[in-house]
């Protein structure tokens, strides 16, 4: 999963990225967006349009970005507050809608 | 067109599908290539035609567009049948074991085997949020024939390579070209954007289409400046909506294939769980899978050669070397 959303998206949620993603894999959390690592096809279309440069790649992964990469994974693979199982791979963000929760790092930032 | 028969249908005209078509031709199989987009090249052509690709063996750096052109030339040596602008829809197993493939256009084709080089699935143009009623009546998603725009006032919508390239290509034939994009920043190749700004095209950002009006065909567009909220009305008799694509596996999910996380499970011969159906490229999944163009090319050769032997068990799996061909 080379692409993920960093903390620069916190409380911005511009969502330009959603309009570009060809596979509908960018999900909306409470305070930021999250890219589903199992659904992203690494095309990079979202990175170019983010007005706050919040989308980063793990090729190469920088140390300041590492926690955000991990938090992005946790959004899908851990059990979020108010849910009883991980989101996993829902196969499209538009079908799921907004998720009223955040991964741990985003939630406490 | 019922009754058409081929040895192999390749679903997907991206790099891997084109290479599969080449290999099928090399093995003497009659081949048809199906793709939902009107032009070959798949994801590379639709999403990043100008990106330099550095990891194709033997090519230190090649633009997507050029790679597609080369692959097309390679595949065309064996004259496959091109069935573009239509997607694979349904399969029916015939009594003799062959497969009747029905396309979304209604075309039917009988084949012994299918290679699914389907990538991330069927590309669908992202629709304009307004003016759906003018689709095909002045509003199009693709420019396939420049002459159809002769003498027209053309509005191009979008900020990617397709939008900018079409705006540039249309200038010599159209009466006027206006390009709008919802952001100030373009995703198209920098040199093309610079050329657009130097050209006679009117470029307006950050603008969106607010409404389209007309009679039998589109006549006028109301544009909205999203920064100021102001509306601007312009004459336009043709609209090209180049807003990018979405993709999904669509009808393939109903073929009885084993699909996990949008990928088709294959074995080491690239066979799916449905007899006669193989897969290659980004769409496949197996232990150790790496989604790279070079891996896809290898899988295309595996899929085609295994499909060939399945059709003629006395044949050799190894195709011989291409250098032996005069």
UniProtKB/TrEMBL annotation, chain A:
**What does the Swiss-Prot or TrEMBL cofactor note state?**
Binds 1 [3Fe-4S] cluster.
Q: Where is this region: Disordered?
A: 82-109
**Could you say which cofactors this protein requires?**
[3Fe-4S] cluster; [4Fe-4S] cluster
> Cross-referenced Pfam families, in alphabetical order?
Fer4 (PF00037)
4Fe-4S ferredoxin-type domain: residues covered: 31-60
> What domain of life is recorded for the organism?
Bacteria
Which keywords fit this entry according to its UniProt record? Answer: 3Fe-4S, 4Fe-4S, Electron transport, Iron, Iron-sulfur, Metal-binding, Repeat, Transport
> What this chain does, per the record?
Ferredoxins are iron-sulfur proteins that transfer electrons in a wide variety of metabolic reactions.
Q: What is this protein called?
A: Ferredoxin
UniProtKB/TrEMBL annotation, chain B:
- Report the protein name in the record: Ferredoxin--NADP reductase
Keyword annotations for this protein, in alphabetical order, are:
FAD, Flavoprotein, NADP, Oxidoreductase
Q: Which cofactor does it need?
A: FAD
Alphabetical list of InterPro entries matching this protein: FAD/NAD-bd_sf (IPR036188), FAD/NAD-binding_dom (IPR023753), Fd--NADP_Rdtase_type_2 (IPR022890), Ferredoxin-NADP_redctase_2 (IPR050097)
Entry EC number(s): 1.18.1.2
Q: Which organism is it from?
A: Paractinoplanes globisporus
Describe the subunit structure.
Answer: Homodimer.
Where the record annotates domain FAD/NAD(P)-binding, the positions are 7-292
| Ligand binding (FAD) | 35, 43, 48, 88, 123, 282, 323
